[in-house]
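User: Teach me something about this protein's shape.
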Amino acid sequence: MKDTIKKLAKYSLIPLCILLFSSILLSCKYKETKSYHEGLAAVGTRDNKWGYIDEKKKEVIPCIYLSANNFINGAAIVKNTENKYGLIDKTGNEIIPFKYDSIDRKNSDTTGLAIVTISKKYGLVTMDGKEIVPCEYDNIKYGLNIKERYIGNKGKDNFSFDYNGNVSPYIYRAESRNIGTINVPEQKFALLDRETGETMEELKAILVVSDKDKFILQNLGNG
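Assistant: First, the predicted structure itself:
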């Protein structure tokens, strides 16, 4: 009986020793390990390079990046050694090319698009890497009204972008139950009657929104 117990004790320690040894090796190689997302965790080496390990602690994407974000829907944003951002899949293959100064994939689940920048100019790219709006706008952001998709500007000209990258002049729409103002400096606008389209009043900077009527604020160009 004693011999049996000794044998069991001996062999039961093997998995524990392996686990302990692998943990020691992991801590020696990586200075930081992020939490797992979709089966992979970003890890940072002591020379500040990032890659990914799987749940078996195997390095599946080499530590060659300056930064690495969590995987979402099978893809992760990473930054290469030239300080350019791209999107990779779980095998490390490039999806969005490494040519952007930033990638914002917020709302991509809904739109299928990411906002990207090059030299502080904004554009839109699909989640499979196709640039559908070139990086030539001063700003692009996700529209508050879902019908407007994305909105942006180039100088004092405002635009809206649908999910296919079609660009059209942006018309401010004001529909509110509360009385308020919107300050729009250095631009000329006109209040149009929503029903007839007739100009009601020209203004340069302020739109007063009535709680009884609905108006369209139309950009007339520079003052």
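Now, about its shape. Residues 16-21, 174-187, 203-223 have pLDDT under 50 and may be disordered. The chain has two helices and 22 strands. If you'd like, I can walk through any region in more detail.
User: That's plenty for now, thanks!
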